[in-house]
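Let us practice reading a record.
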Amino acid sequence: MSETLYLKNLEFFQSSLQNYPARAYEVFGLTFLYSLPPESVTREKHRLGVLPRSPLDFYNLGVLFSEEGRHEEALKLYQQAVEVGGISRIYLLTLALLMSI
């Protein structure tokens, strides 16, 4: 099944490369980016200047900053995740407690 999906996507990429070369390389780059571990995706998106839009983007960037010891910046990002919606304060507090253990 996955081999069939791979071949289907390869065929689509080759067709796109012929018809829309610039767009095909953009998609290829995104495919590579999202094949990385989640923390690497967040780090690379931040490095490339991609601004967070979703609650999960703000949360993941907050985790990255927290791991780097940038706790005040992380707290602001967690607050933005709550404000944007989709992530509750209780969820964030629970995660903070679990991470401190």
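A brief commentary: The chain has two domains: 1-35, 38-101.
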